[in-house]
Amino acid sequence: MDNGMFSGFIMIKNLLLFCISMNLSSHFGFSQMPTSSVKDETNDNITIFTRILDGLLDGYDNRLRPGLGERITQVRTDIYVTSFGPVSDTEMEYTIDVFFRQSWKDERLRFKGPMQRLPLNNLLASKIWTPDTFFHNGKKSIAHNMTTPNKLLRLEDDGTLLYTM
Q: Where in the cell is it found (predicted)?
């Protein structure tokens, strides 16, 4: 499992434990922090996140690749094969299932805030520049969509993006 995903699960687990302990302590009268200050802090964080997200796409053109006219955009690609087969000798075809991950830097998306990493939902993927990746001689490819599109988009404060599908 990816260290980023693992740390994300740990962070969610810790957040849930914190919420449960806050709920229990306030229920049994053990709370040392007034409930209003917790709500104020949560509202402040939501306001900060909203400002960052609003500012990210202000004047951003997703049709232009990062560094256009200055330098090439280096895209790091990882492919993790989860299954291979069946193979058809007569049709000269095979099937593979993969985790496909790309990473690149887009300086236009740099941000300053209390966090270093900003997880973004899959709807934002259509609003930012993404590499136009294709498989040479590929006959058919399918992106798995279960209840929602199976995509992950994560933005680092220096403008580095991780895009997984």
A: Cell membrane
